[in-house]
Amino acid sequence: MNGLVSNKQITRTQTTWIAYILLAVYAYFLNILGPITPFLSAELNLSYTISSLHFSAFAVGILAVGMVGNILIRHTGRQRALSIGAIGLGFGALLLTVGRSPFVTIGASFLMGCVGSLILAVVPVLLSDEHGEMRAVAISEANVLSSLVSAFAALLVGWFAGLIIGWRSALILVAVISIGLGVRFNHPFRSEKVQRSPLQLRSPLPLIYWLYWIALVLAVAIEFCMVFWSADYMERELGMLRSSAAQTVSLFLAGMITGRLLSSWILRYLEAHIIVLASCLLGLLSFIIYWRAENALVGMIGLVLTGFFVSCLYPLLLSIAIGSAKGNTIQAGARATLASGTAILILPLVLGCLADLIGLRGAFVVVAVLYVALLLMVLIATKMPSGQPGDDKNYPTG
Questions:
Q1: What is the separation of C-alpha 203 from the centre of its chain, rounded to a whole number of angstroms?
Q2: How far is CA 391 from CA 5, 124, 159, 217, 382, in A?
Q3: Count of CB atoms situated within 10 Å of the CB of 97
């Protein structure tokens, strides 16, 4: 295998676009937690550790979906699950805006993660079954749109914070949109396409899937350590104003948008595992530039580059993992959600606790360690007999 693939085109259906839009709404709320953290911390007088519990609570909700979401999705159907997720996200966000204690705001984050993450579980499966061996391109494109919308989250928080309506308006605006989408899509937009045999539903996921699952945990951990803590880092370590520091998260997300756009095009010519390995190496170097910066300008350059190279890791590893599941895509999608929840629950909290002890700059060593572990895991997975990502096209997807 030479790492090259033939140039193919993707056909975007109505189902494709609905999946893209709902995943973007989900990504908006997930990524807005980082930019609003400095404001919540200041208003409620929260420590690093307590602040990080907002992300952790969201992650516990993701874990719940990862463990039992496949049962609910099979019972309600994918389309109804997407509707429930969108409505739950919106109501959770509204609760977050009215909370005046960490108990309420952390509880709101949990609600958003618990219900909203049905979207995270369904969308990759929907796109995988809809597009077959072009799943990597579809999932990458979905994440391009998600990154674009997430960048607006950081910008809106900083912008609204300078206005009389306040930073909470960035939550309220999209919460209303999310609830409206949930109501709109409550009626089936298409018939369920894929029917699984009882044997397929009961079959365990193969070992190669779990190796890539671990890689997913590491990749998501890197991404959200950066999303959650980069605003605080730019303010406290590099001396930026709080509102400006909140907006710098959009630089990281802008890098992710650019990287995902480029990777979705490169995927037509190179296999996913080649792109993943290169991104791991270059991403580690970019993070070191950001981490060791002594001024805000260098820090922002490092932040953009880190976002650029980390961007493709989640969608490509997710595509590879689902493709290795031998057709058991619903279970694979739910367990992949469990990977995201595990990463978001543990690593930002670990970094926050460590920052309380040794400072935020020292605590960011966690991200460098994650990069090294990720590179090693991907190398191990690709050396396995069924570990070549190009082999995923041999597994049935519908």
A1: 27
A2: 12, 18, 46, 22, 11
A3: 17
Measure the CA–CA gap between 163 and 155, rounded to whole angstroms: 13
Going residue by residue through the chain, which has 398 residues, state the pLDDT in tens, using 9 for 90 and above.
Answer: 455 444 556 677 777 888 888 999 998 998 788 788 888 888 888 887 788 788 788 888 888 888 887 778 778 877 888 889 999 999 999 999 888 888 999 999 999 998 998 998 888 888 877 776 777 778 888 888 887 887 788 778 878 877 777 888 888 988 999 998 888 777 655 544 444 444 344 567 788 888 999 999 999 999 888 877 888 888 888 878 877 887 787 788 788 888 888 887 887 778 888 889 999 999 999 999 999 988 889 999 999 999 999 988 988 898 888 877 776 777 777 788 888 788 877 887 788 888 888 888 888 999 999 999 999 999 988 887 654 444 444 333 32
Return the SS3 of 13. coil
In whole angstroms, what is the distance from residue 362 CA to residue 355 CA? 7
Local structure of residue 389 (DSSP, 8 states) = G
**Residue pair 177/25 in contact by the 8 Å Cβ criterion:** yes
Distances (CA, A) of 190 to 14, 18, 26: 9, 11, 21
Q: What structural domains and CATH numbers belong to the chain? A: 14-394 (1.20.1250.20)
Alpha helices in the chain (DSSP H): 14-44, 48-76, 78-98, 102-131, 135-161, 169-184, 198-202, 207-236, 242-266, 272-291, 296-310, 313-323, 329-358, 360-363, 365-383
Task: Tell me the one-letter amino acid at 221.
Answer: A
Amino acid sitting at position 315: P
One-letter amino acid at 186 equals: N
Nearest in space to 223 (alpha carbons), one of 320, 312, 109, 137: 312
Report the alpha-carbon distance of residue 121 to residue 111 in Å, rounded. 16
Report how far residue 260's alpha carbon sits from residue 12's, in angstroms, rounded to the nearest whole number. 17
